[in-house]
Amino acid sequence: MSYDAHFRVWRGDADGGDLVDYTVAVNEGEVVLDVIHRLQATEAADLAVRWNCKAGKCGSCSAEINGRPRLMCMTRMSSLDRDATVTVTPMRAFPVLRDLVTDVSFNYQKAREIPAFVPPQGVKPGEYRMRQEDVNRSQEFRKCIECFLCQDTCHVVRDHEENKPAFAGPRFLMRVAELDMHPLDAAAETGVDRKRSAQEEHGLGYCNITKCCTEVCPEHIKITDNALIPLKERAVDRKYDPLVWLGSKIRRRGA
Amino acid sequence: MSHTPRQSWDVVVVGAGGAGLRAAIEAREQGLRCAVICKSLFGKAHTVMAEGGIAASMGNVNQGDNWQVHFRDTMRGGKFLNQWRMAELHAQEAPDRVWELETWGALFDRTPDGRISQRNFGGHEYPRLAHVGDRTGLELIRTLQQKIVSLQQDDHRETGDHEARLKVFQECTVTRLLKDGDRVAGVFGYERESGRFFTIEAPAVVLATGGIGKSFKVTSNSWEYTGDGHALALLAGASLINMEFVQFHPTGMVWPPSVKGILVTESVRGDGGVLRNSDGKRFMFDYIPDVFREKYAESEEEGDRWYKDQENNRRPPELLPRDEVARAINAEVKAGRGSPHGGVFLDISSRLPAEEIRRKLPSMHHQFKELADVDITAEPMEVGPTCHYVMGGVDVDPDTAAAVGVPGLFAAGEVAGGMHGSNRLGGNSLSDLLVFGRRAGLHAAEYAAALGEGARPRVSEAAVEAAEAEALRPFGVEGGDPAVSAGRAENPYALHQELQQSMNDLVGIIRKAPEMEEALRRLSALRERSRRAGVEGHRQFNPGWHLALDLRNMLLVSECVARAALERTESRGGHTRDDHPGMDRRWRRVNLVCRLAEESTGSAMADPLLGLVRLTRRDMPPIRGDLLSLFEKEELVKYLTDEELTT
Amino acid sequence: MATGTDPRTTAPAPTEAPGGVHHASRAAIPARHLRIDRWWLAPAATAGGLLAFVVYSTWRAFANADYYAAPYVSPFYSPCVAKNCVPMKDGADWGVFGTWWSLSPALLVLIFPLGFRLTCYYYRKAYYRGFWASPPACAVAEPHRKYSGETRFPLILQNVHRYFFYFAVLVAGILTYDAVLGFRDADGAWGHMGLGTLVLLANVALIWAYTLSCHSCRHIVGGRLRNFSKHPVRYRMWGWVSVLNARHMLLAWASLVSVAVADFYVYLVASGAFDDPRFF
Known about the structure:
heterotrimer, B: 647 residues, five-stranded parallel beta sheet, 21 helices, globular, C: 280 residues, mainly alpha
């Protein structure tokens, strides 16, 4: 069942590097990460790779396999052509640190820019009441394991470094959507308008909904259809729809 | 003079899983400056692997539930070896800790009336586990992570600096606790990314490093679980208790080989999944121990009725505590009734409609589909025991989580011992993290705040230099220190594999005295060889070097496990002796306490049975009367000696 | 010391050229992408399909002929709002535009379905990828130096999609009316059904499915609500629309093909190239 596979793995750091060829044994049922580990244990003890759970739950082993952003632990060798070379590189949207490890601090920075959940005033812990149908949407987004593959594949920042300051990326726009759809989030009472800020502060307008984020999501979250587009529609409510604006004015006056 | 950069914080938390983050939040909310150090990226901790839920007696699904019932279940599950005060605090405070998460944005699954839904789990009398599908651990870690970010946003508004009072040092490993006399003075470690060393001075250190599973070959634990906190505590002069109790989760994946050990959540059984052997028989009915006989169904019909009507039926034996189920599976496989790849069958496909399986167990469906190419809605899974959790850990004060004997050191979560006795119930881990994480953070903060500026311990230059030299040893194996470099350099990966194989084979789920003695001999040999574990390359993100350093911890902890397991001549919970199969009431009140021997290379090397760890027996404090009265007399006689019952 | 949550000070300034995957901070890989699958197939097919439709519809929209064969009217020419339409018995033949309009009447109404599809979230993806290569495929570097997405004029106008949706509902209603008229014979007597009736029916069904599966529709119907539990009826409708919405791409193509087929069928019958088979 075992066979020898041909791998090309990017080795190097911020000062440069190259794709290095290896021939390595592959056993039945293995994933790409197993093969990378075999390389470490045999001919490349200092091959840097980030990983944790090896079960697709922690989102650490993100890389690009044959040019596609994937989790190494969830890419079965049997899904790849036996005779073809398997190319493994670090994520190409982030600064490289060493070998397959990239500097993902961009994402942690963006996380800090999204205003946190605001608990409702006057509702004590233990008194929160939410219906399942009202939490379903946000729960889908909370499946996110923060592998940052969506951030990696998104051309807005992948192909345009200069957009990084202005664009939160799919993961964190989805976080805005998650909070905006949270049945008890009280941000509005504190003057935070998540719908408006999604566009004005987090760069929702940069998204041209080409759905690569949804394509690469290992959790199969429908990022574009369920988070980004609804968020765009919510931003339209605030900014571009005079009917909604008029309706809310009248209702406010009436109340 | 060392050039290691130094920083000063009030509280340092080592580990950023559930316990560590909860401790950090608490310390920061007490107004102190808190640093968190973790080996992985922020938010990737092993807590994300927890699937089933958080046990808390909120009584949302069954109003009969309360903390006393939860306490009772916990003590039963731990076979009464639990530190009763911890079990009491845990049961009392768990609901508040869960509700608090909601105020930080957590979204649990709901009951029809909008409360937090609770599910059944092994060993819990009522549906008790707050959950989010089968990804509860992820929800917990993300909520805590986002709460930390929220506190950092507050600090940013106030001071202009996100990290003024709460900072996460990610991808850093602590290799030594530093002391000033008896007291903790800080930590020493390295950044994985650059390989640079750092020292953080702090009067209070909270260990929240999780478990030791990476010492075993088949394990559900990730690479981080190298027993760092256990070893750091030992090396700093603290003691470990209950190290003989290692929980083997009954259902890990057994095939394909590369995923062997990965967890299959207990919720599969809670939601109706049943275990069958190769004859198609639901064998668990043959393995109900006497102490649980009245609580479990006697027939398949009764067990099946229970899923619909829990008031009038007893639960199926698939939901026995984990140790019982793991042993039963082990026995079936040994008797030749296993599945093709050496496990047994766990079947949910014939029990629930495909749609419901996908809805209730989405990540299990996903996991089997993607990793094993098995569709669990159409065919049974193959499962077998996998090393999952260590009940043993740092000997702590139950109320304050302070490590006994080392002022300034605290421990919470899996690295702390006592709470779960000889066996942990599913769902009690996440609640443990929250309850004792908070307590550790609170008391660490109080301890640090009580010290005046002048009374703070100091880190000596010599201690930092010694720690540096130790961490650099793998690079100088050949041609360096002559005491070390005699002989060929050893490959750390090979040493690790041998260690895992030895522990799995010799101190695994079923234990025998001669095998454990053999394990101690092998550990001794490995310890000697590990001193020559050498690495190539440089210090920047070098996994070989990291593993070489982790080996020290794994070897120390493994020795504790093997030594304590050899000493305890009975079977109880996560410790099963083939040569002493019965539970012995006299052992019930005995804790085995591990301490580090005087660190002398000579005698320890020469005599493997002596080793580096010294073991003492200690009596447990008697259980408070009002707590004992929660149990029926007939039940207590199974666990407690006559003498304990009369006093 | 680094923590990983801080940006690294050693990283080059983000304005440094060149940007994208060849930015100095990224892994030094000369190739624009390393994909080995046929990633170009999907955008190429999309571009080809859209282009074919554009050519066909331009020809037909400007043709100003062969769009009515009683009782069938081409969906390209309905409603007809100029005076220069051929008379359609009881049809959507409203000369509100007066006589000054001398070009094809199709041009007056096609703006609305065109705008609806042009601003549609699916078609946007399709033509951004297929025509503008922005990006050509996932993880394939795009050829543009600058990118501002939908933040500026003209692409910021994509935000008006919901208004086109309102018009699209009207148009779909009119096409439904047209399809119903297909149950009359050429003289206006009820009780007729020909192959053309079925073609118009199929087309209008797909048009409705596509229109209702629109993301804006999903938002308006219920997506904008925070608490579904307080609006059970809208929640249910949102559920239905969501089911359709999941197939938005499929419906977009199916209705695009069906509208062309319906027009072409009318053209064949009106030009006398084909006789509409009559069932009763």
